[in-house]
Fold:
Amino acid sequence: MSEGSIQKGADLWSISTSLRSDPQLASVLMCPHANYMLEHHRERLLAAAHDFGWQEAEQRLGGTEGLEYLMAVLDSQKTELVSKVRILVNARGQFTVDLSATSKVSIEHLFPTNLTAMSTISQPIWRIFISPIKTTPSIFTKHKTTSRDSYDVVRERIPAWARAAANTGLEAEILLVNLNGNIMEGSITTPYFLRKGKWVTPPMTSGGNIGTTRRYALENGLCSEEEVRFEEVQIGERIWLSNGVRGWGLGVVNDLRHEN
Structure:
């Protein structure tokens, strides 16, 4: 999509991010607030506003004042309950915040230090599939927005039985594959694969999202970047998934063609 087309359609979508509000973050980690990786989320929104050429949004989000403004917006929606907080910012720098319930997660799964060690004490919470269709990378896969067509068409390939099985505690996720056959990302998560004794995540050149937990994992040495071919991912393989609401969770790759 051209820059002109993006600007013309700016009223049709917002840039977005979803984070976790969790009282234990303030009490256990002595944080000044209970918002999970807030600074990373602000910088994610700022990068998206810049790439879309949304100057008003970029000005609103930039600098110390931008972070303070975001904190004030979130404080106005403050709750003592563990919540998913969805933040939308439009081209004019206007914020919308929605809260919904989410599950409890241990501090160890919000701020892991070693994925291999955690694999020995964690039970899978994700049932993972690989998309049978290819996705074209774009600015809308690089940044998280409310324009989710590329993701919606892939998520439709998750089998109905797997969606229903979410009631048993296993959430369904599907991995996007680019035109070259490389894994891009999950539809709502960042994936991590064990390769030659080391954990790796797809590089940005594969076309996936600039995720907040992905950034944390790279900055803290939990993984490195490496291309992952879709055909090399094995049925039954255990991989880690992460996002800004659920933290890290173990998952098992399933076959789209059969119930498991």
Remarks:
- DSSP finds eleven helices and eleven strands in the chain.
- The first strand starts at residue 15 and ends at 21.
